[in-house]
Amino acid sequence: MLFCAGALQAVLVMALWLAELGGRASGGWVLPWTLPPTWVHAFLMVYGVFPFFIFGFLLTVYPRWMAGPVVPPSRYVPIFTALTAGMLLFYLGLFTARGVLLAGVVTYLAGWLFAGHTLFGVYRQARNRGTHERLLNAALTAGAIGLAMFAHSLIAERPRSFVIARDIGLWLFLLPVLFTVSHRMIPFFSSSALAHYTPVRPGWSLAVFGLGSVGHVAAELAAVPEWRFVFDLPMAISALYLSIAWNLKRSFEVPLLAMLHIAFLWFGLGMALYGAQSLLHIAGAGDGLGRAPLHALGIGFVAAMMIAMASRVTLGHSGRMLAADTLTRACFLGMNATAVLRIAAELAPAAATALNTLTAGVWLACLLPWAWHYLPIYLRPRLDGKPG
What we know:
Elements: H1 2-26, H2 37-48, H3 50-66, H4 73-94, H5 98-125, H6 131-156, H7 159-193, H8 203-221, H9 229-245, H10 248-251, H11 255-282, H12 292-317, H13 326-347, H14 352-378
C-alpha cells in the first residue's frame, strides 16, 4: 500500500510543478500557494515522494535482512494512514491556510516516527544486525529531524529553518538511504541474475559516503562551497569505483538489473559534478554549474533508482517474472532523459524556462504510464498464491 501511495505521489507532485512552470512560461496564471513555490517543490521532492517507497521497502525487508519479527498490518496500516493523511492535509493547506499545511506536516511526521519506531523494534529484536541497518536507522532519524525543522520554518516563518530542513533531508536522509540500500542490494540482485558473479560490498565505501555526506551538508550550511570538494570528490571516486566493481558492463545482460546499475552510476556522476563546481568556486568562476549537480542526483540517481528498484521489488514481491518489459525500460530511459534535460537547463540559461517546463512534462510522460502499469499490481493478490 505504501508503494501504491508513492506511485501516485510521483505523478501528482510533478503535475503540480508542471502547472506552476506552465504559468511562469505563459504568464497566463499564478497558482495561489500559501508557501513560496520553491519551498513546496523542494519539500515534496525530498520528503513527499520517496519516503513512501523507502518505508514500504524497509518494513518488508528489515525482518528478512536481520532474521527479525515480521511487521504485522497493525503496524504498517497506521503508518500508511498517517503518511497519506499528512500529505492530503499538506496539499489542502497549500491552497487554503498555513495552519492546515502545518497540521499535514505534523501528521506526516507522526507517521514517520511510528515507522521509525517500528523498524527500530525489528532491529532491536533481530539476530543479525549489521552496519547497513545502523546507517539506515540514523538516516531515518535525520529525516525526522529535517521534517521537524520544516515544521519550525512554518511556525516561526524562518527561511533558515527551511534551508536546514532541505539540506538535512537530501544529504542526511534521502541520499544516505538510497546509497546504503544500493550498497546492500545491487550486489545481491547481480549475484542472483548473473552467473559466476562475486558480490563486492567494501565497508570503507560506506564510511567514505557517511563522512562525506556529513561534511557536504556542513559546508553547505556554513556557506563555504569552495571546500565541498574535500568531501564530494572522494564520494565520486568511491561511487564510480563501485560501478566498475559491481560490473556495470555485465549488468546489460539483464535489463532489469542494468536499470539499477545505470541509476547508481548517476550518483558517481552527480558527485563528480559537485566536486567540479566546488573547484570552480576556488578558481573564482562562481557557481557555473548552477543546480546541474543537484538534478544529476535528484533525477538521475534518486528518481531513476525509484523506477528501477520499485519495479524490481514489485515484480519479485507479486510473484511475477523478474524481467523488465518494454514499457518499464522505456519509462526508465525517459527518466534518464529527464535528468539530461534538467542539467541542460542549468547550462543554457537562455532556454532555462522552456527546458524546465519540458523536463516536468517528460517526467510525467515517464511516470504516468509507469504508475498506470504498476498500480493495479498493488491492488491484487500475488500471482503465485503466496501471502501478500
